[in-house]
């Protein structure tokens, strides 16, 4: 945080998550610069909900996100590829169950 | 001021003052595009300007219906001359530094917040509707100014000194917001408007609470005060502002596509 307190330092980067309506999850919308969480939230409102996109906004310091690395993609994700039994594809879905 | 004005004219003149405040401040805020400290702040000030433009358009359209001239919003915005504009001096004041803008926005949004809170019960249905919509917008404008005045006032020694200087520079333009004109009195009597003087204590109390929390000081009573905007008497800055705002429309008066 020491860099954020230096007056001329660049503002830190924040990732923005917007929920479009009740019942849906927050979805990553983009990123922005802001000096602190409250202004990040307000900037997010101005940048990412201008056209009625959201009912809720989260902001997270980009530095605080731990992300998987593209280099690890094979070991992270490929092992799940051939395990078809993890997918619920062996059931007959009754006609009147619309949203299963 | 003509004391025999008919009620429709009172309403039109009253609304024109509110509309011109919003329109002229839109123009000043628009100047921040590409000049704010960060692109995020460009967007924030642009959003505020667009809110104000929406208020101005609705009010100008209503003025055109009421004043009997049949002018539309464009005619009122682009084809009036300086003496016909009824905005206060605060909003035409040239853009200063970012602290100046936050000081102006804090005062103007605090004034508009109290104004529109009262005007939701105006007897003019269009004005009451505009007020009901605008109150949400203005709440956000006031919060935006508050956030920045707090951070700049309670920030570094330089930001504190510059925010204080900005508040001091804006102080001479505050009184005019809360000064009653004959039109205000007539419009209040008819139930359309509200007396600006009745908004003063609540708006000032809000600004004072922000200034105190920001470790700043309310400016001393200014020795000179801007006045006359509501009677069409403006500063030197107004002509330049109108030239920039109006010249495209006046160069191409009937243009509908570009």
Class by alpha and beta content of chain A? alpha+beta
Fraction of residues in H or I helices of chain A: 10-25%
Number of strands of chain B: 0
Low-confidence stretches of chain B: none
Report the mean per-residue pLDDT of chain A as an integer. Answer: 86
CATH fold annotation of the domain at 3-68 in chain A: Ubiquitin-like (UB roll)
> What's the overall average pLDDT of chain B, rounded?
95
What proportion of the residues of chain A form beta strands (DSSP E)? 15-25%
H-E string of chain A: HEEHEH
Terminal CA distance of chain B reads 42 Å
Largest interface by Cβ-Cβ < 8 Å: A-B, 14 and 15 residues
CATH architecture of the domain at 3-68 in chain A: Roll
The number of distinct helices of chain A, counting runs of at least 4 residues, comes to 3
| Rg of chain B, Cα atoms, Å | 18 Å
What is the assembly state of the chains in this entry? Answer: heterodimer
Global structural class of chain B: mainly alpha
List the strand order in the largest sheet of chain A: 2-1-3
Question: End-to-end distance of chain A, in Å?
Answer: 46 Å
What is the CATH level 1 assignment of the domain at 3-68 in chain A? Alpha Beta
Number of strands of chain A: 3
Pfam families (chain B): PaaA_PaaC
Organism (chain B): Metallococcus carri
GO biological process, one term (chain B): phenylacetate catabolic process
Protein name (chain B): Phenylacetate-CoA oxygenase subunit PaaC
């Amino acid at each position: 945080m020491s860099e954020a307190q230096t007056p001329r330092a660049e503002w830190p980067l924040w990732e923005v998550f917007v929920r479009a309506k009740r019942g849906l999850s927050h979805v990553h919308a983009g990123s922005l610069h802001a000096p602190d969480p409250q202004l990040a939230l307000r900037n997010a409102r101005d940048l990412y909900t201008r056209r009625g996109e959201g009912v809720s906004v989260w902001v997270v310091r980009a530095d605080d996100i731990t992300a998987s690395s593209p280099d690890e993609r094979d070991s992270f994700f490929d092992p799940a590829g051939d395990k078809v039994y993890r997918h619920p594809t062996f059931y007959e879905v009754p006609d009147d169950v619309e949203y299963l | 001021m003509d004391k025999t004005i008919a009620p429709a004219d009172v309403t039109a003149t009253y609304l024109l003052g509110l509309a011109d405040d919003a329109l002229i401040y839109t123009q000043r805020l628009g100047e921040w595009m590409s000049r704010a400290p960060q692109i995020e702040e460009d967007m924030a000030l642009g959003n505020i300007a667009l809110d104000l433009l929406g208020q101005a358009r609705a009010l100008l359209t209503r003025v055109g219906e009421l004043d009997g001239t049949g002018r539309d919003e464009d005619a009122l915005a682009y084809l009036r001359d300086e003496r016909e504009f009824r905005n206060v001096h605060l909003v035409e004041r040239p853009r200063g530094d970012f602290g100046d803008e936050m000081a102006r926005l804090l005062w103007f949004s605090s004034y508009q917040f109290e104004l529109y809170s009262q005007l939701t019960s105006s007897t003019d249905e269009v004005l009451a509707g505009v007020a009901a919509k605008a109150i949400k917008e203005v709440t956000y404008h006031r919060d935006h100014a508050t956030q920045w005045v707090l951070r700049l006032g309670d920030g570094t020694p330089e930001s504190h000194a510059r925010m204080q200087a900005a508040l001091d520079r804006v102080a001479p333009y505050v009184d005019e917001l809360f000064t009653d004109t004959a039109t205000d009195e007539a419009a209040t009597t008819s139930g359309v408007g509200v007396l600006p003087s009745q908004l003063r204590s609540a708006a000032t109390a809000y600004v004072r609470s922000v200034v105190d929390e920001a470790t700043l000081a309310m400016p001393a009573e200014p020795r000179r005060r801007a006045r006359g905007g509501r009677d069409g008497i403006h500063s030197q800055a107004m002509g330049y502002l109108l030239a920039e705002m109006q010249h495209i429309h006046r160069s191409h008066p009937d243009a509908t596509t570009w």
